[in-house]
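Tip: read the tokens left to right.
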């Protein structure tokens, strides 16, 4: 058992979004650190069933809820905005209201897609959101509902999350490499990748330090999808060539921000830490054999 997060060992955590990358990261840390946590599957707890959620929370009495659940399919959200809004906004508001009533700390994860990508430099927490698509709008509405609830909260905006699981870009690249020897990847889509394990550790450090409010939580540095993939392929030793392409070359239902880098300066200063680079994170991701 490690010595990290000693101040959290007396707290009971409820993790929502079991089997997802972020939930997996938290579960790994909690097992290593001996921190009590409950992580129900979606069959055990569907966050869109509001009465069931309240009853479950009443039963388990958590001190802190980590909401890793989300509707993350950007394309599907464009054709099914009601479901995206139900999961990413209405369910979040219901959870937040319950947390306020019960005195539970609520940790919620949002997205770089709340921005339109037209700023031209890294976004800070003071920048005004302007979503381009239904997914981004649903995530913004979730943030607004949480802030309006009066609950004690932390909101972390993440971007290009990768970790243990199948719902991330690097996993898709790895699968594509098994079927083809040539990939075309956008070179004009730029952001700041986020390693799920780092996001989980920084979340727990933030809780231990008593932070509250909205923060951007990404690994340090920025990169295009093309260069991100090239770095991963080289480090992984995959036999596939990568060709740069433009976002306009791919027909998609949802418009995406071309430059959605999030500045992690605020959280870094608040915690007095330097967040590892995205290159360092990819190296550790590969070493962890999550693929």
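Filled-in amino acids:
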């Amino acid at each position: 058992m490690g010595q990290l997060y000693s101040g959290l060992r007396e707290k009971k955590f409820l993790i929502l979004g079991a089997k997802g990358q972020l939930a997996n990261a938290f579960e790994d840390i909690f097992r290593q650190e001996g921190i009590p946590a409950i992580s129900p599957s979606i069959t055990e707890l569907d966050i869109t069933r509001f009465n069931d959620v309240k009853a479950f929370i009443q039963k388990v009495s958590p001190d802190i809820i980590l909401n890793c659940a989300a509707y993350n399919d950007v394309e599907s959200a464009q054709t099914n905005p009601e479901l995206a809004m139900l999961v990413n906004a209405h369910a979040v508001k219901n959870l937040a209201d319950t947390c306020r009533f019960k005195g539970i700390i609520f940790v919620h994860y949002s997205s770089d897609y709340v921005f339109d990508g037209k700023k031209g430099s890294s976004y800070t927490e003071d920048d005004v959101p302007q979503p381009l698509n239904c997914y981004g709008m649903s995530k913004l509405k979730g943030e607004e509902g949480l802030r309006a609830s009066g609950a004690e909260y932390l909101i972390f905006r993440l971007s290009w999350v990768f970790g243990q699981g199948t719902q991330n870009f690097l996993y898709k690249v790895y699968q594509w490499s098994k079927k083809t020897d040539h990939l075309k990847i956008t070179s004009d889509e730029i952001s700041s990748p986020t390693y799920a394990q780092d996001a989980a550790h920084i979340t727990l450090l933030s809780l231990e330090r008593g932070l509250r409010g909205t923060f951007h939580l990404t690994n340090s540095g920025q990169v295009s999808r093309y260069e991100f993939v090239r770095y991963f392929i080289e480090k992984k030793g995959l036999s596939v060539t990568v060709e740069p392409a433009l976002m306009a070359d791919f027909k998609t239902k949802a418009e995406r921000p071309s430059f959605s880098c999030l500045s992690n300066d605020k959280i870094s200063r608040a915690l007095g830490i330097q967040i590892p680079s995205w290159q360092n994170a990819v190296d550790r991701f590969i070493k962890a054999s999550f693929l």
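The first strand starts at residue 13 and ends at 16. The two ends are 26 Å apart (CA to CA).
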